[in-house]
């Protein structure tokens, strides 16, 4: 395996039109941060690049909807996202943004290099144009009737009701989102990256030279390559973005998929004047951390751009994760079916590492996985508290109790201590191997094994009993236990940085170097410990139930919003209407119909007579609550027998959007028998 002098690690640029959620953290940022923290502990030369993706149509749509500028939208969410990452310890060396001048300059230069080398294809095509607004319309600026399901609010690229992928030309009765007018087709010119031309070299580079890539990444790349590649537009007609640096490209910008990955390069230029060695030196290892929706861009398109620009290195690995679901359902920002990072810290202050731990332990490394609040609680209480927290607390409390918090001088090792030394070497090797192969779940299991080993050691040796007969042996046991605490704090730091810092403070030591963890001398005999604290706290049922109820309310709200008003029925004549005899009536008696959950038997005074009406309103009204209520009754409806009861008439009800029924009645008190007209 090739040795590298330095590492450039990038993480997908989150889109700056909303905050980030646990799916982002699990899929990209926690694994990237674990990898980078590990490399730093190994004293490697590494830079960790992040930033906000701030161009594209969704941002312009959101800005138009809110009546603000696109810059105001991205400024708002860039700051929210940046703070969330900082709060969760995602240790970027720089977190930049694609709307800044350095990025615009870098992206334009990159485009011009490819342009001057003749890499682009120029094409003219017919695209929708809004004559009232005097601008071409991106797919998301066009709505119409879906040709597949008939939904009237399908976008020009996708119907969100049936999920079908569409083209704007397929829409029935297309209209401009901006003006509402019907757009016209107009000729426009764009520049394309000829991916089909690069197929053979991509097949060689990916399918032959990178068989070590994760199966989900390799498989998706192979599927794309086997299906055949096509030229892809690198420009579009839009005002928000990096302007295309050509004279004949007025009101055109670089397509967001083209300019966004260049954001890694522009951020590095901001970070250091030596940026080129991190992007153009063969002794640098480039690694992209992304989600599966970005695989084609980072494995096929961006490498093609880098290769044909001519001076850049290509990624050595792209360890993309699959998607994280939430409580059995796909995470959706539009439906608010998500756990937002900023909201999490309001509900669980100081528990960043709990979420980092759970998301790593349950990471969707090769297939989609599911986050549930019950699993979150169980992993905290049964693993972090009961294993790691319990071991640290026992070791420190016993040292405080028997030796006033001073680490005792150990005696001679027994076979048990030699066995522990060998186990730690195995654990450390496992952590290194798994992190370097992007198997972070397995690496986390190894890191937790240190505390498991410590708990077993204390349980087997029982120093609380030995203290009465063999103090010297207890000194050795606690010396080793505290070494295990220091080892745990060091080797678990990439996964649990906040807890690691807390443990180092309790141990009253600086963080040891990674390579020194091979020995059991991280903390010296005679060293004074600080007072022990609980490393982790139990999470109780009520806190979890609160989160579940929050999600259920989101689901209920979305279901309500999906309910539509019943369409108008066929037109009738006035003569049809006057055939209906609707009267004001008063409910005299009401009772449930036996063995019928939905039916109430009503005795009503219609002013004409007193009659029985059976009505399906038992789910919405209790009999005792409606006696004396004035209602509207269709009195000339033909009798009908329901559950053996003859019903003479119909009570008029209004069906709300949520399906519930409400009485239709007079505004004030009326005489029974008053006609409704």
Overall description:
This protein is α+β, with helices and mostly antiparallel strands and 677 residues long. The protein folds into 4 domains: 6-113 and 256-321, Rossmann fold; 119-217 and 220-226, Methionyl-trna Synthetase, domain 2; 331-362 and 370-562, Isoleucyl-tRNA Synthetase, Domain 1, CATH 1.10.730; 574-676, OB fold (Dihydrolipoamide Acetyltransferase, E2P) (Beta Barrel). The chain is built from 19 helices and 26 strands. Strands 17, 18, 19, 20, 23 and 26 form a 6-stranded antiparallel β-sheet that branches. It has a 4-stranded parallel β-sheet with strand order 3-2-1-13, with helices on both faces. α5 packs antiparallel against α6.
Keywords:
alpha+beta, 677 residues, 4 domains, Isoleucyl-tRNA Synthetase, Domain 1, Methionyl-trna Synthetase, domain 2
Approximately how much helix is present in the residues?
Answer: 40-55%
Q: Could you report the average pLDDT, rounded to the nearest whole number?
A: 92
**CATH architecture label name of the largest domain:** Orthogonal Bundle
Low-confidence stretches: none
CATH fold label of the largest domain: Isoleucyl-tRNA Synthetase, Domain 1
What's the CATH H-level superfamily name of the largest domain?
A: Isoleucyl-tRNA Synthetase, Domain 1
- Percent of residues in β-strands: 15-25%
Number of domains: 4
């Amino acid at each position: 395996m090739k040795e590298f002098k330095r590492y450039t690690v990038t993480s997908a640029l989150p889109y700056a039109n909303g905050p980030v959620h646990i799916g982002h953290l699990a899929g990209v940022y926690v694994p990237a941060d674990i990898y980078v923290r590990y490399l730093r502990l190994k004293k490697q030369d590494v830079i960790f690049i992040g930033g906000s993706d701030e161009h594209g149509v969704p941002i312009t749509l959101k800005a138009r909807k809110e009546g603000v500028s696109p810059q105001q939208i991205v400024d708002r969410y860039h700051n929210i996202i940046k703070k969330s990452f900082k709060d969760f310890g995602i240790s970027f060396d720089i977190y930049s943004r694609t709307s800044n001048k350095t990025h615009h300059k870098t992206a334009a230069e990159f485009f011009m290099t490819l342009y001057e080398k003749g890499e682009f294809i120029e094409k003219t095509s017919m695209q929708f144009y809004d004559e009232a607004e005097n601008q071409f319309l991106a797919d998301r600026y066009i709505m119409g009737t879906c040709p597949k399901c008939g939904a009237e609010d399908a976008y020009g690229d996708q119907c969100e009701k049936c999920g079908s992928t569409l083209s704007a030309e397929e829409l029935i009765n297309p209209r401009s989102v901006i003006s509402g007018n019907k757009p016209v087709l107009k000729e426009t010119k764009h520049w394309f990256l000829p991916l089909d031309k690069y197929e053979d070299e991509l097949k060689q580079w990916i399918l032959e030279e990178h068989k070590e890539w994760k199966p989900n990444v390799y498989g998706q790349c192979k599927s794309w390559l086997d299906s055949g590649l096509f030229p892809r537009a690198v420009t579009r007609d839009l005002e928000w973005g990096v302007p295309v640096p050509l004279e004949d490209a007025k009101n055109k910008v670089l397509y967001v998929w083209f300019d966004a990955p260049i954001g890694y390069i522009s951020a590095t230029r901001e970070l250091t004047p030596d940026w080129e060695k991190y992007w153009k030196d063969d002794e640098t290892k480039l690694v992209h951390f992304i989600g599966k929706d970005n695989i084609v861009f980072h494995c096929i398109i961006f490498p093609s751009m880098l290769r044909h620009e001519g001076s850049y290195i290509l990624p050595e690995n792209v360890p993309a994760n699959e998607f994280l679901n939430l409580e059995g359902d796909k995470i959706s920002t539009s439906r608010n079916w998500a756990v937002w990072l900023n909201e999490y810290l309001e509900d669980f202050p100081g528990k960043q590492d709990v979420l980092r731990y759970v998301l790593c332990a349950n990471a969707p490394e090769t297939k989609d996985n599911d986050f549930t609040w019950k699993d979150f609680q169980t992993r905290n209480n049964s693993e972090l508290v009961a294993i790691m927290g319990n071991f640290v607390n026992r070791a420190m409390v016993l040292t405080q109790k028997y030796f006033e918090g001073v680490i005792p001088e150990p005696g001679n090792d027994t076979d048990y201590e030699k066995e522990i030394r060998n186990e730690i070497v195995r654990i450390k090797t496992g952590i290194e191997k798994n992190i370097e192969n992007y198997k972070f779940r397995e690496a986390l299991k190894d890191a937790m094994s240190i505390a498991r080993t410590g708990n077993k050691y204390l349980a087997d040796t029982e120093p609380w009993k030995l203290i009465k007969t063999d103090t010297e042996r207890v000194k050795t046991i606690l010396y080793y236990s505290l070494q295990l605490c220091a080892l745990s704090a060091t080797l678990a730091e990439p996964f649990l940085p906040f807890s690691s810092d807390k443990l180092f403070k309790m141990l009253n030591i600086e963080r040891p170097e990674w390579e020194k963890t091979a020995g059991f001398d991280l903390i010296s005999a005679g060293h004074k410990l600080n007072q022990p604290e609980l490393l982790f706290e139990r999470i109780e049922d009520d806190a979890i139930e609160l989160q579940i109820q929050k999600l259920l309310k989101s689901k209920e709200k979305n279901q309500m919003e999906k309910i539509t008003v019943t369409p108008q029925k066929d037109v009738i004549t006035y003569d049809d209407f006057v055939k209906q005899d609707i009267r004001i009536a008063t409910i005299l008696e009401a009772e449930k119909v036996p063995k019928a959950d939905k039916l109430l038997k009503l005795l009503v005074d219609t002013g004409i007579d007193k009659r029985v009406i059976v009505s399906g309103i038992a789910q919405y009204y209790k009999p005792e609550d409606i006696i004396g209520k004035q209602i509207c009754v269709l009195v000339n409806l033909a009798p009908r027998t329901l559950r053996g009861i003859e019903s003479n008439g119909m009570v008029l009800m209004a069906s709300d959007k949520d399906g519930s029924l409400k009485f239709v009645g007079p505004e004030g008190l009326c005489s029974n028998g008053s006609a409704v007209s």
